[in-house]
């Protein structure tokens, strides 16, 4: 199928061609016709499937067909609600791209950054608004964001939105829009609470499921390292020194973990950036920019911060902490080995994470190669022989440790 078969009009087709897309992805093929026919839709698809264009393109087409000749007095007619700021910015960039040859305008509004410039843009009028829930409600309260003319409402990454505690905000936003609007709900997975939300606000929705990717590319060399938790940092440094080359994304489960690892890598002379929830919006954007432009080649992130963000074409992914949801593993390592390139993934498994390996391997139907030959094995086959000579055990010797070597020891932690 081609984009032309999807009945998209010329200015949009031209922008698509210039972006370099040859044909629609599966989710686009299935979703675009339903959006154009003004149906409510629930789409279960993960980032990387091309889901942004699957709503952005038909929305532009629908608005384009009713495009006012005059630019004056534009009303917001499409609203995209996104859980994270980065995702809002990225969706905004997509809309800008695809609308190049139309008169349609869009803007992204989100918290953590000055509100005034956003007010100025909204006052001038836009057709499409991309927003995080908090900032949107704030600007609505101030009578700046008028939602009375919304024709299409998109809830992107709905499962994450609910996980982040936005359920009441989302319901409120839905009520603030017109009753007649079309609603498109996108979610990586459809857990019960998403289903419940959909039941309360969508009208006879069509369902589209792009099967969660359970297969990992053959081009990814997957390696598994069993390692005691306290030694993960040493193992990471060991691999960065000896094995891993190129742009590397390191996943940690918590913000604290990200910060701790960042400090250690910086102290060891690595150029590193990080993204996590405690960072200001500007710093997160800057970190992403530095990484994408290859100013630094290591980025450390939590899954939540990295979710939905277009960071692909990596040389390596390190699962510093194993994900407890097996699909997350597929998703994380799928960011490497794009477009026929080869990539590598390095997963660290401590004793308490062994069960995660089981569920991941069940999902991907592959036994991940276990690398035993490394300096920090979890169950050393041969216990190192400790010579309890009086000399090495003497207090005197300990007392003579230099300050530098003490510091060196400390800095791992
Ligand atoms: P998304 O799932 O929306 O985050 O998109 C993932 C990546 O796929 C982005 O880098 C898009 O630019 C890209 N993409 C979207 N649609 C297509 C397409 N039809 N052909 C090739 N790449 C695409």
Keywords:
disordered C terminus, 413 residues, binds adenosine monophosphate, 7-stranded parallel beta sheet, alpha/beta
Account of the protein in words:
The chain has a 7-stranded parallel beta sheet, with helices on both faces. The C terminus is likely disordered. The chain is built from 18 helices and 14 strands. Helices cover 41% and strands 15% of the residues. The protein is globular. The chain is α/β, with parallel strands linked by helices and 413 residues long. Helix 14 crosses helix 15. The site of adenosine monophosphate has 12 residues, from helix 3.
Task: Supply the helix-strand structural class.
Answer: alpha/beta
For the biggest β-sheet, the strand order reads 3-4-2-5-6-1-7
Task: Describe the main β-sheet briefly.
Answer: 7 strands, parallel
State the distance separating the first and last CA atoms: 54 Å
Number of strand elements: 14
Q: Estimate what percentage of residues fall within beta strands.
A: 15-25%
Contiguous uncertain segments of 5+ residues: 387-413
Task: Please give the count of helices.
Answer: 18
Topology of helices and strands:
Elements: H1 10-19, H2 26-36, E1 41-44, H3 51-65, E2 78-81, H4 85-98, E3 106-109, H5 116-124, E4 128-131, H6 133-141, E5 152-155, H7 158-163, H8 167-176, E6 182-187, H9 192-201, E7 206-209, E8 220-226, H10 232-242, E9 248-251, H11 255-267, E10 272-275, H12 281-292, E11 298-301, H13 303-306, E12 316-319, H14 326-333, E13 343-349, H15 354-364, E14 369-370, H16 390-393, H17 395-399, H18 403-410
Parallel strand pairs: 1-6, 1-7, 2-4, 2-5, 3-4, 5-6, 8-13, 8-14, 9-11, 9-12, 10-11, 12-13
Helix pairs in contact: 2-3, 3-4, 14-15
This protein binds adenosine monophosphate.
Adenosine monophosphate binds near residues 21, 28 and 50.
């Amino acid at each position: 199928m081609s984009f032309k078969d999807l009945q998209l009009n010329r200015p949009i087709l031209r922008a698509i061609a210039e972006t370099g897309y040859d044909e629609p992805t599966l989710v686009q093929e299935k979703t675009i016709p339903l959006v154009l026919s003004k149906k409510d839709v629930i789409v279960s698809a993960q980032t990387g499937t091309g889901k942004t264009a699957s709503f952005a393109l038909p929305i532009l087409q629908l608005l384009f067909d009713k495009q006012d000749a005059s630019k004056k007095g534009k009303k917001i007619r499409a609203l995209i609600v996104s859980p994270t700021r980065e995702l809002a910015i990225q969706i905004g960039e997509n809309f800008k791209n695809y609308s190049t040859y139309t008169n349609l305008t869009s803007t992204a509004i989100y918290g953590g950054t000055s509100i005034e410039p956003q007010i100025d843009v909204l006052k001038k009028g836009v057709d499409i608004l991309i927003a995080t829930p908090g900032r949107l409600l704030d600007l609505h309260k101030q009578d700046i964001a008028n939602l009375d003319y919304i024709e299409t409402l998109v809830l992107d990454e709905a499962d994450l939105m609910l996980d982040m505690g936005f359920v009441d905000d989302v319901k409120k936003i839905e009520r603030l829009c017109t009753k007649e609007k079309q609603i498109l709900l996108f979610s990586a997975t459809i857990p019960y609470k998403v289903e419940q939300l959909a039941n309360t606000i969508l009208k006879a929705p069509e369902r589209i499921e792009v099967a969660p990717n359970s297969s990992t590319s053959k081009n990814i060399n997957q390696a598994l390292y069993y390692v005691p938790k306290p030694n993960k940092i040493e193992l990471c440094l060991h691999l960065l020194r000896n094995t891993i080359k190129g742009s590397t994304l390191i996943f940690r489960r918590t913000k604290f973990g990200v910060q701790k690892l960042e400090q250690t890598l910086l102290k060891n002379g690595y150029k590193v950036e990080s993204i996590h929830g405690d960072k200001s919006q500007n710093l997160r954007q800057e970190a992403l920019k530095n990484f994408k432009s290859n100013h630094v080649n290591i980025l450390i992130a939590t899954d939540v911060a990295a979710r939905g963000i277009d960071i692909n074409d990596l040389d390596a992914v390190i699962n510093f902490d194993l994900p407890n949801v097996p699909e997350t593993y597929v998703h994380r390592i799928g960011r490497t080995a794009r477009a026929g390139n080869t990539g590598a993934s390095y997963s660290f498994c401590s004793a308490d994470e062994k069960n995660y390996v089981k569920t991941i391997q069940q999902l991907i139907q592959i036994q991940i190669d276990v690398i035993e030959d490394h300096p920090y094995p979890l169950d050393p086959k041969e216990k190192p022989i400790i010579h309890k000579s009086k000399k090495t055990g003497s207090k005197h010797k300990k007392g003579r440790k230099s300050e530098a070597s003490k510091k060196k020891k400390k800095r791992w932690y």
